[in-house]
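hi! just following up on the protien thing from before. the input was this:
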Amino acid sequence: VPGLAGDGTDWSWGAYSSAILVSAIGISLWPHLFMKAFTARSDDILRRTVVLFPTFQLFLIPVFLIGFAGVLFPTGPESPDFILPFMILETELPAVVVGLFCAGALSASMSTGDALMHAAASITVEDGIRPFKAMDDRTQRRAIQVLVVLVGIVAYYFAINESSSLVALLLTAYGIIAQLAPPVLATLYWRRATTAGVLAGLVAGGATSVFFLQNPELRPWELHEGILGLAVHVPVLLAVSLATPAQDPDHVGSFMAEARDPHQPRSTHA
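and the predicted 3d structure came back as:
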């Protein structure tokens, strides 16, 4: 058996392997991380980021050590999510050390939380509202501010009412986030991809992921619902794209040319 789930139950090889795979796909497609690629000043910065990004995994080594220490600790908390603060409090460390730990944990959670809230709000306004309603900068800023508050309230509700572990919540989120991978790859590398194909794939993959999330007993080989969603997503994207009219070649060519030469003017075709 490869390991234990957050609730202490055994993981099968199918569940464990697919969880690793969906995590590897999803971690690169979180909107608050993916959006930062658009702020790069040059292609060299993007390439350097791609090369250095895997070094982030080195920061997981202390997490593993903390987990191993928690397994060997004489007693444990009710939830494995609280193993580190539990050990710190049980070992009766000085108050200054406990305070520094709490401040570090809070700052780390805030840096991720505020980025997620701002990303959700800005994407909703930019891609969900502005295409259908004209907005000046002031109105757009106000809408984002309101949505940040609403997203925070919704997140807080789930945080205090959800009994699942942090790992389970993260893996659940990856099931939907991973569905962004086929559209991104199709946009970058497949000229024949169409808007209808991308939307159909997103709907089919997302619906499949949600279905198996709600019905885990139906998952073949206990595979993660996100992987099952991708298994449906990709064929639907391909089939619908091939069955619908191709995009304007000049429109597609302008983006492909710009990818090769960012200084080349973009076509104005819609």
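The mean pLDDT is 81.
The first strand starts at residue 3 and ends at 4.
cheers
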